[in-house]
Amino acid sequence: MRSVAARVARTSVGVGLGGFTGLLALGFLVVAGIVLAVTAGRGRPRIERAAIRLTALDRRRVHRFLGPGVAGEVCGARAVAYQGARAAIGSFGGLLWGLLLWGAATVVALIVGWVVGWPVDDIEATPFTVVYLAGLAAVLAFLNVEGILAVGRIDRWTADRLLGPGPGAAYERRIAELSTARSEVVAAVDAERRRIERDLHDGVQQRLVAVGMLLGRARRLPSADAKLAALLRQAHDEAADALVELREVSWRVFPAALDAGGLPAALETVADRSPVPVVLDVELDDRPAPPVETVAYFVVSEAVTNAVKHASASRVEVRVRGSADELAVTIRDDGLGGAAPGGAGLTGLDRRVTALDGRFRVDSPAGGPTTIEAVLPCG
Fold first, then answer.
1. Angstrom distances, CA of residue 189 to CA of 186, 291, 377
2. Highest mean pLDDT among 144-148, 211-215, 366-370
3. How many Cβ atoms are within 10 Å of 27's Cβ, its own excluded?
4. Same domain for 286 and 228?
5. Nearest to 22 by CA among 98, 76, 118, 129
6. DSSP characters for 181-219?
7. β-strands 316-322, 359-363 pairing
């Protein structure tokens, strides 16, 4: 209840002050019209500067009493338009405040007249008259206050429309915010991948190495039980296989070589691990930013994996060209082709590239060859 009363009081004060700024706006419009007529339009720059100063003054009023104001510079033409709107809205708000004060003064005059015995307009303080006038005054005061609050909402809406960014600027700002948020999500995912890789390498992998060493030592101990020896040998082999698989998983999560040696070193590891020949052609003017490196690596890694698993390729060519502006990655294989751009793997790569405002293209006709291109901005 207190918050509602405080909001009503704050808005009412803001509208009341808006009545004064409305008078200033009205005076400004009259003077501006005279100046334009006398100077044949040459005084327009001065008029716009004056409008900007008056708008800055009124913007503080809106921010203080009607809600958080919009930020940013206002051009002269919009400031003049705002002063035109302020002249009308402020005058109406001032009129409502005048009616409220006149009504309050009338009620006070009636009460004082009844108390001192000098009735105003010979209105006697009969029970019926008191009840009737009290109810009428309450209704009129309620309508008056509602009108003032409505003017406050219109006042705020006008400030948002004329002083805030236009629809185009608002859309551009929203797009920029979404692009930034998307890039931050990608960076957070990559950071989490790095953390998981470190945990696997420093934690689980080391424990498996220790288990394998213990089992190896146990196998070398003399034992009369052939079954026990066989179980130890099997456990040791399983631990070795689990270690190999864990290293593969750790590498797929995030390659440690990417942080240590950069993109060329990571791509060389992809080529070494591939069961088919992978020809690398990498030329970089400078080392790309970590997010760009990471996306480029996963594009190449996923493309090589797809070429081997699904396209039955016998050769894969990887070409990487990096400049200060962009990093271009092209992967071409001699496989069967027919890769669906809407597949889960390629869709994930497309989203990764798009998250950095890059371009992604897949050309895979039936019978091959398949060409995957990704262009990532570096600026």
1. 5, 10, 19
2. 144-148
3. 13
4. no
5. 98
6. HHHHHHHHHHHHHHHHHHHIIIIIHHHHHHHHHHHHHHH
7. unpaired
Give pLDDT tens digits for 280-333: 898 888 888 888 888 888 888 888 888 888 888 888 999 999 888 889 999 998
Contacts of 83 (CB under 8 A, 6+ apart): 25, 28, 29, 51, 54, 55
User: Which strands form 370-377's sheet, in the order they lie side by side?
Assistant: 278-284, 316-322, 326-333, 370-377, 359-363
Collapsing DSSP to helix, strand or coil, 283 comes out as: strand
98 shares its domain with 132: yes
Positive or negative, the CA dihedral 355, 358, 363, 369 is negative
The two tokens of residue 364 are 């895979």
CB 61, CB 14: distance < 8 Å: yes
Task: Give the C-alpha distances (Å, rounded to integers) separating 374 from 160, 169, 339, 357.
Answer: 42, 30, 16, 11
pLDDT tens track for 258-268: 767 788 888 88
DSSP symbol at 288: P
Distance CA 323, CA 70 (A): 40
Output the pTM of the full model.
Answer: 0.49
Tokens of 214: 């213990």
Whether residue 315 is found in the same domain as residue 370: yes
Pick from 190, 212, 100, 107: which is nearest to 145 by CA? 100
Angle of the 290-309 helix axis to the 256-273 helix axis, nearest 10 = 20
Instruction: Quote the tokens at residue 12.
Output: 């009412």
Are 289 and 340 contained in the same domain? yes
Whether the ω angle into residue 369 lies within 30 degrees of 0, i.e. cis, is yes
The closest alpha carbon to 298, from 318, 275, 326, 325, belongs to 318
Among 24-38, 331-345, 365-379, the minimum mean pLDDT is found in 331-345
Give the lowest-confidence range in 64-73, 92-101, 126-135, 252-261: 252-261
Residues 6+ apart with CB under 8 A from 279: 271, 315, 316, 317, 318
Count of domains forming the chain = 3
Domain that holds residue 32: 2-164
CA distance 192 to 317: 30
Nearest CA-CA partner of 75 in 188, 182, 166: 166
